[in-house]
Amino acid sequence: MKLSKRHIAKTITWRIIGTLDTFLLSWFISGNIELGSQIAFMELITKMVLYYLHERIWFKSKIKSSNKRHILKTFSWRAVGTVDTFVLGWIVTGNPLIGLKIGGAEVVTKMLLYFVHEKFWYRIDFGLDKRKKRQELKDLKSGV
Predict the structure, then answer these.
(1) Which one Pfam family would you cite for this protein (predicted)?
(2) Which pTM value belongs to this model?
(3) Are 113 and 24 in contact (CB under 8 A)?
């Protein structure tokens, strides 16, 4: 599998947002800043790998409608992310209910944050040399 600078950049920017959200939710729900930090740190590693793989799979998707694509990606990623957070919260705290609460809270916060992140990345050409070249040719033909 070829590494993509776009997918790596998206992974890093999303992970910064996601880790901060997880840290704050874990701290608030557990009432313990150390547990919140541990969960966020562990998630930093697991989610980077899972997100990159998710991006690679979706890159091959034939779905062209941007809104439909972003909504489906949002739900598929949230399913993966929620399971990961639940398991990590359970492992770190030793309490499956706390893991479930953190994962449940993230369903709302992360879906909103992820959707905005996807819309932002869809609008920029970073790492999409082919899209840039097509647009440049289109602009030349139209006289822009």
Answers:
(1) DUF2061
(2) 0.71
(3) no
